[in-house]
Specification:
- The chain contains nine helices and eight strands.
- It has about 250 residues and is of the alpha/beta class.
- It has an eight-stranded parallel β-sheet.
- The longest helix is centred in the first third of the chain and has 23 residues.
- It is globular and about 50 Å long.
- The termini are far apart.
- The site of pyridoxal-5'-phosphate (PLP) has 16 residues, from β8 and α9.
Amino acid sequence: MPDVPELRSTPAAAEIAERLGSARRRMARAAERAGRDPASLRLVAITKTVPPQRIAEAVAAGVTEIGENRVQEARLKHSSVPPGLRWHLVGHLQSNKAAIAAELFDTIHSLDSERVGAALADHRDPGRGPIRGLVEVDFTGIAARTGVSPDGAEALVQALAGRPGLEVVGFMTIAPAGSPEAARDCFRRLRELRDRAQQGLGRALPELSMGMSDDFEPAIEEGATMVRLGRLIFGERAASEVRPPG
Ligand SMILES: *Cc1c(COP(=O)(O)O)cnc(C)c1O
């Protein structure tokens, strides 16, 4: 009688692996449509509200970078999630949490003031190298939204330069929900803003964090280097957590 293969993974783990594979294929196709190398893209799995067990399943399926939107949640999960991951903060950061954030995270996607950037830089352990930061830009003007206005983005990069504890590597945005065309417009504007900032400041700002479960394909076509995927990998969250304001 042939050996019955050992069942290694739970159905839920197999589902995460399948969802991840499908997301990666769609990412690669979007890159190819734009004539970009799929290897230049990074998938940040957004794990807010996802328990450590499921994060471990995603890691077993190949996830190496995870993103949380709250410092406190990241802190609670940190020791129960597999080691060796890159941690990203994608939600708003207040300077009173900068010390913990500088310890927990490798990359902060939500820089929106000199104050918070300076606090991160000051608290970063020099032995770990600078924390990477992205300036968050809001194109929607929705009052509840965080991020700097497009007019203020380049000045903030400039104001945060020259601090050993922080390296600003690019920009992040959250597109308006519900309109693929408006989302694409927003992604194009972020890329153009980045191109102008590189010219104006005479330095490279290679990273563009843009695109979520509903809009990562146009984001990649417009130049995203990091996409932030939550529901596409882990399924729907509780209603109150579905999407940031706007
Ligand atoms: C929740 C969240 C995401 C992921 O959203 P999905 O629609 O689940 O992919 C990405 N970026 C930020 C800033 C988020 O808060």
